[in-house]
UniProtKB/TrEMBL annotation:
GO molecular function: electron transfer activity; heme binding; metal ion binding
PANTHER family: CBB3-TYPE CYTOCHROME C OXIDASE SUBUNIT FIXP, CYTOCHROME C4
Signal sequence, start to end: 1-22
Domain Cytochrome c: residue ranges: 24-105
Pfam families: Cytochrom_C
SUPFAM superfamilies, per the entry: Cytochrome c
Protein name: Cytochrome C
Length: 108
């Protein structure tokens, strides 16, 4: 009997703690990612000057996008354009955007 109570308590604790680990909000991310699409939404987009390719971010794994954006934001990853983009993002923004991008079927 005690065993079942304990399992139940653990299950309840896990359920309750879920929101802390919840993925970002895909819908919120769709809106927040709007500005990103100016560059990342155009297939084969090349920046005019200096000339560089804009990487595909739609369909990437969310952890990868979260890591990349936090690196840009902290300045660990060098790229002026993306550092400027990431500078204004909160952790929640990053989670939301990453979730949206992971789920976005369009491989941009
Ligand atoms: C002005 C154009 C522009 C905008 C706007 C822009 N990006 Fe980028 N992004 C780039 C370029 C160029 C790179 C490649 C930088 C590099 O080589 O490190 C990049 C790189 C990235 C990467 C790393 C991809 C990889 O494969 O390593 C991620 C993630 C990313 N951007 C997400 C975003 C998000 C999210 C937004 C919106 C908040 C955004 N970008 C807005 C141009 C842009």
């Amino acid at each position: 009997m005690m065993k079942f109570v304990r399992v139940g308590a653990i299950a309840a604790a896990l359920t309750l703690s879920l929101p802390a680990f919840a993925e970002g909000n895909v819908e919120a991310g769709r809106i927040k990612a709007n500005t990103c699409m100016g560059c990342h939404g155009i297939p084969q987009y090349d920046n005019a000057y200096p000339r560089y390719r804009v990487p595909k971010i739609g369909g990437q794994h969310r952890d990868y996008i979260v890591a990349a954006l936090k690196e840009y934001r902290s300045g660990n990853r060098p790229h002026k354009t993306m550092q400027a983009q990431a500078a204004s993002l909160s952790d929640q923004d990053i989670e939301d955007i990453a979730s949206y991008l992971e789920h976005s079927a369009a491989h941009k």
